[in-house]
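cron nightly-structures :: item 1 of 1
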Amino acid sequence: MGKLLLGTAHFLIEKIRWLVVIMLILLAGSWLRSEWQVVKQAEQEKHHLQTTQQLLQKRYQELRTAQAQLSQLTLSLTQQLEEKSKQLSNLQLQLKQLRQQRQRLWDDHWWARKNPTSDVAIEIAGYDAKISVLTVQANLAQQAQVLWQTKLSQSPEVIKSRQILQEIQQSEVALQQLNQSINQKDSVLSTSIVQRLRLSLFSILPTALIILLGVMLTPIIFKMLMFFGLAPLVTKLPSVVILPDASGARPIESPVSSNELQGHVSSHAVTVTLLPDQELLIHPDYLQSYSRQSEKTTRWFLNERIPFSSLAAGLVTLVCVRSRSQQPEWVQVASTRQVHSEVVILDLPAGATLVCKPHCLVGVIKHQQEPVRITRHWRLHYLHSWLTFQFRYLVFHGACQLIIKGNCGVILEPVGEPRLIQQSATLGFSAGMSYANYRCETFISYYMEKDTLFNDQFSGKSGIYLYEQTPDKRQNKDVLTRVLGGVWDAVLKVFGI
């Protein structure tokens, strides 16, 4: 009952957790959608306001221009009106001064003003006459001013100018309101997270496009230079011969019949016959069956002189199998982990040499008292080595037998006319034959990484070369494994492992 309750609670909690996640996602989507709608509406309204502002600004400038033209047309009337107004003001000022002088004279000589023959009375009479004349002139000037003012106010240009001034004032008020509305929309847009994110994306988009274009074009340009520029020159370089003196050595023998010295020579399992004086050094994953009476020990390295190479190739903690009696011992060799792995036994007679990559080696059959003889040969002064990043070659010397594995099979071919195979498929070749690099046939296959830039080319008068049928290119593995595996493969290639 308790387990049932716990299971039910766990089920409900799991579903509630998913419900909360779904609700949060929906809320976030709804918020983003509403923010986006607000931003779009604000942008549309701002665009409409800016369009209206541009039109109104254009009309405002036209009104200002028309006002300036009308001001030039009414300038003469305005100047004449100002002149009449100035004359009226001067006459009114003179009349005011005369009246003040007469009033002072009238107030200061109250007795003398009553005598008509006195100087005061005569002077007051003169002031009266001047005042009368100035009054008439002022009235005439005022009438002229009113006439010109009426003429100016009734002028079509003045009426139109007045209307334009009123329209200009209205336009200024409308422009001010539009500016306030645009500022409000800018404030809404500047505070929106969606708008700021979009502006940030648009600001970096040109740079990102340029970088993307560079990332897309750089590999193409580099591969075109390598394929059409450098690779044709490399194919004309002299071949590499690891051991020139080995060209006259005995050819490598194979357990296949004389009619089958080339082609598919491997099988999923092989039987090793151990003579009483022989021993088998075999990788534990390839030791399928053996006699209970056989002697088995552990050999830490394939060759104590190259411990790091043995470790890198996985040839460590090997099983050493020997016969306890004077009778031959039979050992069945096959892969116990890799389904598509096939093996083949190659006989190296005394004096025969074979350049072999230790990673494809799973075992060695040799004399009990003799170690596996492996020599190291560096080729740093060849351009082939720098282009393929293989600077060291490991040469196995007979007499011994090598057990070589290959994915989906091992192909063995005798050397003759120059032949090409994929670099990743090469397992080994005779040390006395010519080895070179030749450009792959099509650029498209090289660009799409269907093929490497260079293929291995083998030629010579005698010898063999062997390669696996389907190289493992880590196509079905994750990115990190492919990257790390590619780096490790490059390191192994440098040292010929």
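cron nightly-structures :: done
The longest strand covers residues 341-348.
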